[in-house]
Design goal:
GMP Synthetase, Chain A, domain 3, 3-stranded mixed β-sheet, elongated
Length: about 100
């Protein structure tokens, strides 16, 4: 029987990280946030909680909070499409709050 060669460190860490991540909707949103929200939004806003289909996002400023309120329906659609149903109800609402910094 022949053994496979050693795995790369990147592959081993990627596999370990995927197994260690919590299996919650919030964790899934946070993992995909930069990709789905875009670079500009993800630099200014972070998903911090999810409860009953409401995703809470904290923003650095009131200006960004207002912008995300306007973008909310499109962002919810993109998140729900990307995350799929996976035995859960869809995200139905964004709750956005300004923190003044992170």
């Amino acid at each position: 029987m022949r053994r496979a060669g050693p795995r790369s460190l990147g592959k081993a860490l990627g596999d370990a990280t995927a197994r260690a991540a919590p299996a919650t909707l919030l964790a899934r949103v946070q993992a995909r946030w930069p990709e789905l929200a875009g670079q500009a939004i993800s630099a200014e806003a972070t998903p911090v909680a999810e409860h009953g289909g409401t995703l809470t996002i904290e923003c650095r400023s009131a200006v960004w909070a207002a912008e995300l309120e306007l973008l909310g329906p499109d962002l919810l659609r993109r998140l729900n499409e990307a995350l799929g149903p996976v035995g859960r109800p869809p995200l139905t609402r964004l709750r956005v709050r300004a923190t003044g910094g992170r």
